[in-house]
Amino acid sequence: QVQLVESGGGLVQAGGSLRLSCAASGRTFRNYALGWFRQAPGMEREFVAGINWSGGIAYYTDSVKGRFTISRDNAKNTVYLQMNSLKPEDTAVYYCAAGPSLGRRAYLYDFWGQGTQVTVSS
């Protein structure tokens, strides 16, 4: 079992930055791929970024490439999402997730956090 707790969300102006953190419990953290997803009101949950167990491979959705960076610190059982040049369309609840395989599909991830709200004002 892995329990995930996100933090770092908030309100920011367009062009600003936020760093989301997701702290995990469980000694097997380093065995899992980790992902960030987001869900805006009335929209389906969408993949944002993912990283493999070692941190050597990362995927991003096209809309955030060059602006967002995912990273992980296995010693701290934490995954991060650095978000720069934020846009109003980035507004959503952001969720971190853990699963055995890195991928873009939500069904690949077995464990989910409760989410943190990110609001970008224009």
Overall description:
The protein is mainly β. The chain is built from no helices and 11 strands. The strands form 2 sheets. Strands 2, 4, 5, 6, 9, 10 and 11 form a 7-stranded mixed β-sheet that branches. Strand 7 and strand 8 form a beta hairpin.
Q: Termini distance? A: 40 Å
Mean pLDDT: 96
Order of helix and strand elements from N to C terminus: EEEEEEEEEEE
Number of strands: 11
Helix proportion range:
under 10%
Q: How large is the count of helical segments?
A: 0
Rg over alpha carbons: 13 Å
Q: Mind describing the biggest β-sheet?
A: 7 strands, mixed
Uncertain stretches of 5 or more adjacent residues: none
Q: Given the C-alpha coordinates, what overall shape results?
A: globular
The percentage of residues in β strands lies in over 45%
Output the structural class. Answer: mainly beta
What brief labels describe this structure?
122 residues, mainly beta, 7-stranded mixed sheet, 4-stranded antiparallel sheet
Question: In summary, what is this structure?
Answer:
It is built from no helices and eleven strands.
Helix and strand topology:
Blueprint: E1 3-7, E2 10-13, E3 18-25, E4 33-39, E5 46-51, E6 58-60, E7 68-73, E8 78-83, E9 92-99, E10 111-112, E11 116-121
Parallel strand pairs: 2-11
Antiparallel strand pairs: 1-3, 3-8, 4-5, 4-9, 5-6, 7-8, 9-10, 9-11
